[in-house]
Amino acid sequence: MSGSGSSAPGRFADYFVICGLDTETGLEPDELSALCQYIQASKTRDGAGCFIASAVEGENFEQTPLRRTFKSKVLARYPENVEWNPFDQDAVGMLCMPKGLAFKTQADSRDPQFHSFIITREDGSRTFGFSLTFYEEVTSKQICSAMQTLYHMHNAEYDILHIPPTNDKESCSSIEDCNGTSVSKLQRFNSYDISRDTLYVSKCICLITPMSFMKACKKVLEQLHQAVTSPQPPPLPLESYIYNILYEVPLPPAGRSLKFSGVYGPIICQRPSTSELPLFDFPVKEVFELLGVENVVQLFTCALLEFQILLYSQHYQRLMTVAETITALMFPFQWQHVYVPILPASLLHFLDAPVPYLMGLHSNGLDDRSKLELPQEANLCFVDVDNHFIELPEDLPQFPNKLEFIQEISEILMAFGIPPEGNLHCSESASKMKNLRACDIVSDKRNGNIAGSPLNSYELLKENETIARLQALVKRTGVSLEKLEVREETSSNKDLKVQCNEEEFRVYQLNIQIREVFANRFTQMFADYEVFVIQPSQDKESWFTNREQMQNFDKASFLSDQPEPYLPFLSRFLETQMFASFIDNKIMCHDEDDKDPVLRVFDSRVDKIRLLNVRTPTLRTSMYQKCTTIDEAEKAIELRLVKIDHTAVHPHLLDMKIGQGKYELGFFPKLQSDVLSIGPASNKWTKRNAPAQWRRKDRQKQHTEHLRLDNDQREKYIQEARNLGSTIRQPKLSNLSPSVIAQTNWKFVEGLLKECRNKTKRMLVEKMGREAVELGHGEVNITGVEENTLIASLCDLLERIWSHGLQVKQDRSCTTFILEDRASVYSASTQIWAFQTTRRPTPHKGKSALWSHLLHYQENRQRKTTSGSFSTSGVLLDSERRKSDASPAMSPLRISLIQDMRHIQNIGEIKTDVGKARAWVRLSMEKKLLSRHLKQLLSDLELTKKLYKRYAFLRCDDEKEQFLYHLLSFNAVDYFCFTNVFTTILIPYHILIVPSKKLGGSMFTANPWICISGELSETGVLQIPRNILEMTFECQNLGKLTTVQIGHDNSGLYAKWLVEYVMVRNEITGHTYKFPCGRWLGKGMDDGSLERILVGELLTSHTEADERQCRTPPLQQSPSMIRRFVTISPNNKPKLNTGQIQEAIGEAVNGIVKHFHKPEKERGSLTLLLCGESGLVSALEQVFQHGFKSPRLFKNVFIWDFLEKAQTHYETLDQNEVVPEENWQTRARSFCRFVTAINNTPRNIGKDGKFQMLVCLGARDHLLHHWIALLADCPITAQMYEDIALIKDHTLVNSLIRVLQTLQEFNITLEASLVKGIDI
Question: Where residue 385 falls among pLDDT bands split at 50, 70, 90?
């Protein structure tokens, strides 16, 4: 394993490498990158074009030989190998020259280009590379001849391709024209003529280092290159300088600065101490100039939420600078997934990876975004660095306090003369390094390929046109120019002289200021995170083994403490791998010495904030807290640069033979390997072993700055990587045979399946709530926000699964060119490949692989339906009915994948394919059909083969079956993820009213009406045509249905209606609600009511009820017919004893108390708890019916009759002013006022309806316990109740009052349908 063996000595650089053209092996085509270019070119062609290619020989005749890719080789490396950092030849070769060798002639621009790169090993440790690419004249006659031959072949093939189809005579006569055309084409493709052109080839010198001192390495390489291009030879042979940097220059100790000598001048680097932010040496300024503040913050948000991020630029260094800046600004969190800031051309298939990644793709500067087809774009953040453009994934939540955050960053940028919207002029790619003078190279502070000098002060800014652009930005960002504080230079002592030049010092200042502002956001947001860390009860070994099952952070409690605007971002951020790893680190590091350095710095900052907020330790506020640590951080850097702590040994003459060390002007020499391969036997840096203090500090900082890891740490990382299921941390940059690619894809497939298993388990555990906790599965609650987050992340996972192995170019003729089928590609000399393609339209933003597959399936089904050729099994599948325990009178809904798609297609509010795919997934989950629908979709094997490559997840049968099985487990719980999200859409509802068959519903003459209420809204009164019992209507989404009001206008001869129940079905989600009634509606019948309020119950299908193992209690329903008829003939009522009645009251009140102790977004329907089967109204009805005296024969007496008599009694008492005490008087008056108001309502709700209304209003206004006390002492009670009645037992009444008093602390809001017509 890399890095095992002795720990690294503190050397500045491990290797010096030279890459370029190996004249012995000659021109070798770069197979994979040539193939990628071929596919890329074939995509941009018109429909019926022909292609001739030989990918094996690397010849793509769309490209001239000068533009083709040829393999570069590592020509030399010094030393041969170091024990602590084994040399990775493939990776270094690919990343030094990611597009392989480039050839140019004297007519082309040949400016040197600098770029850096990273090699990440499987254990997560990193090595940094810095390379300078320049051009040397080709001296080999064989290479020049080979290039000339390639041109002749190219021109001949080009002529064949472009001869128009004519007869022989015509072609003969126009042969000169053809030649003329050929010549003009040749001139267009800047050709090469060996007799008149000079051929140049790219070469690269590179330093491989353990730490990222970008500025210093850039200077070292530029000065070395200057030494071979300058007319005057350098003071010493080049070997002396390279030996010095490899063996005699140490890494600066933590918190110290170091000066060493380049060829032409001193080079300074400084390293932060263990209490500062980690080392970061790339210019933040450049990122803000290229992208602008708003785009940077959006990109930063995407990275934190672990979206796939693809950077796109012509300049390798820009890709690296943006990637490193974004990951550095994440402190204290670290990117946990695939990280390839520069993706070599031969690794383009990695864009197919179905995992979060941060990759950089090189653009040729010619293709625009529309020509770049990517396997998936649903969860992709695409950043066109050169063109100041960012394409964001859908549903991206805002970073907390985004406007204030942007304003704080803008103030800093403006102090440094950088416009907050970015300097658009700096993104032109003209490089100014042509004809460099020696001093220019040394003092050039730009990354070799950035043009344009920066604005140096705010004064300059005021005078130039940028201010106009700024004012336009003001409206968007909320930055006020009047209030803008432009920071002054905060240098504590103006007299101190820093050792680097002014411009370099300003880069250091800007970097640290911006980084402190970003770090401060997390310090503020997570100031009290430690309180919510769940420490494991078992030892570390067991904890590691069961890591996936463990909850390490109390997310629900943490989120409940956060300001509302933060929740959309935070709820998703807490689900990321980077947050989980951060908390794992916290759990593993108990003592301070053991603590990860990043964590130590972060915790010390959090402690400072907590000391400041000591008066309000847990009070969370969304008030923006500005950064206060900038001056201190700046001062630390300044002190290091004023007084240099260490100076390295100067370069000196080596023990070289006479004649060695000479070189030719303009050519980088072949160095003397004998003097460079072995370091000094001893010097003051390599001699120092473990006792050296700064070496110990290094080891502590290894993780922070991505140094090599010691064995314990490495084991920890590998274990963690396995446990946390991060499938592939890094693509292997070597041996890119088809078998390696296949193995990589297999790892992706396994990773996707594991992620699916973990996600489904997590979602079920969260949904089952307390029941799951009792079974030992983690947290108690799931908030509404969190449920939404989990479903959104499931949609992301499905999108990634459907994108894996997708044929990017899906042709109608199914003629696809597959990258991995290289065996089928022949050379041009043996076979001509003709591709006849029908181009699909360029995909617009928001395309979705899942929705695309669904559309193909829909199209296939429609085609088969019209041709009548589809199999009978398909029909059965589509027409199978859902067995519901609904009455046979309501025709069942058909289960149909196509129908569910049509529902989504009819929703006008959803504009993009990604949105449609997500809505379809939500709908399928709510209908408990997700697994079934996807199984049906994938049953079309012919279509799957057409759309997906052989290695795709969806073509791995066993994994696919397991995946569908995991999704099937969602059927155990009820989700309302479609209903609760699409609240404004129109939904068709189907109503069925079932009257009693026995009592002549057919004779009914009145005009009925109905009003349906849900958690979101209500329908208003809907008139039902007479004698029509079933109808469908459309209205805005009502949410979960709660009540139905049903009544009639009492017209006609027989205006009496006995309704058994009402059923209402949502025609999109299929949810069916039953509203039991069992009562008469009519004057003189029952309690004389003309309308009733019914409370609903959601029905489940028999099959689901059998399958589900979940012990979730069913929703409550309207009081049943038996209970309702009690009041009609009280003699027949079931005799409940006082104990049972007290228990019913206790349960009803307890249900309401629990309701209010849940987070607001999780609460169910309060109407059910008040008016349902075992609700408060029902329980109090039992209280008043206990011991009620039997009425005379043929006369029904209701509780409301008793209450009216009590009201009359108290009103007469009030008039006679015989009242025992003032308190009593207030209670009596309020009781009388409510009873009178209910009696005066224009609604015909009957006596039981009035009692229900009184109980609901009493609960709302916290008066029930007062009224019970009042009625217990009322003389009317003595007349109408027997001695055994509960209402006459003072002990039981006092107990009842105490129970009802517990409702006083809750703010009860009643549904409009319960109190319609009452204005109290």
Answer: very high
**Distance, C-alpha 649 to centroid of its chain:** 50
User: What is the secondary structure of 1226-1240 as a DSSP string?
Assistant: HHHHHHHHHHHHHHT
Could you write out the DSSP letters of every residue in 703-738? TTTT-PPPHHHHHHHHHHHHHTT---SS---S---H
Residue 303, amino acid: A
Contact 224, 242 (CB under 8 A): yes
| Chain mean pLDDT for the chain | 74
Which amino acid, one-letter code, is at 214? M
Quick: pLDDT tens for 756-815: 777 777 777 666 654 444 444 444 444 556 677 778 778 888 888 888 888 864 433 332
Q: How many residues does the chain have?
A: 1320
Number of helices followed by number of strands (H, E) in the chain: 45, 25
The one-character DSSP state at 216 is H
| CA 588 to centroid of chain Cα atoms | 27
| pLDDT for the residue 985 | 87
Query: At residue 1177, what is the residue type?
Result: V
Q: Are strands 308-313 and 357-362 parallel, antiparallel or unpaired?
A: parallel
Q: What CA–CA distance (Å, rounded) separates 27 from 56? A: 13
Region 1098-1102: what's the mean pLDDT?
70
pLDDT at 1005 over 60: yes
Higher-pLDDT residue of 111, 1124: 111
In the block, tokens 């297609």 appear at 905
1241-1244 long-range contacts, CB within 8 A, separation 24+: 1241/1317, 1241/1318, 1242/1317, 1243/1091, 1243/1316, 1243/1317, 1244/1047, 1244/1050, 1244/1088, 1244/1089, 1244/1090, 1244/1091
DSSP letter, residue 988: E
In this structure, what are the phi and psi dihedrals at residue 990, rounded to the nearest 5 degrees?
Answer: -110, 125
3-state class (DSSP) for residue 875: helix
Q: Is the separation of the CB atoms in 571 and 305 below 8 Å?
A: no
Task: Determine the Cα–Cα distance for residues 550 and 724; give it in Å rounded to an integer.
Answer: 11
Q: Count CB-CB contacts under 10 A for residue 66.
A: 20
Amino acid in position 556:
A
The mean pLDDT value for 537-550 works out to 67
Short-list 340, 344, 322, CA closest to 120: 340
pTM of the model: 0.69
For residues 981 and 910, give the distance between their C-alpha atoms in angstroms, rounded to a whole number: 12
Please tell me the distance from the alpha carbon of residue 1215 to that of residue 1224, in angstroms, as a whole number: 15
∠ CA 549-554-556, rounded to 5° = 110
Helix axes 1246-1260, 1199-1216, angle to 10 degrees: 60
Residues 481, 488: Cα–Cα separation, whole Å = 16
State the burial class of residue 1223 (Cβ atoms within 10 Å of its Cβ: 0-12, 13-18, 19+).
exposed
Nearest to 554 by CA among 525, 527, 578, 583: 583
Lowest mean pLDDT segment, chosen from 676-690, 933-947, 1087-1101:
676-690
Burial class of residue 22 (count of CB atoms within 10 Å of its CB; 0-12, 13-18, 19+) = middle
pLDDT over 90, % of the chain: 16
Sheet of 380-384: strand order equals: 338-340, 357-362, 308-313, 380-384, 389-391
Handedness of CA 982, 984, 985, 986 (dihedral sign): positive
Secondary structure E strands in 306-345: 308-313, 338-340
Structure tokens at 1024: 């039902």
Q: Which of 1196, 1314, 1313 is nearest to 1259 (CA)?
A: 1314
10 Å CB burial of residue 1029 (0-12, 13-18, 19+) is middle
- Tokens of residue 71, six digits: 């393999």
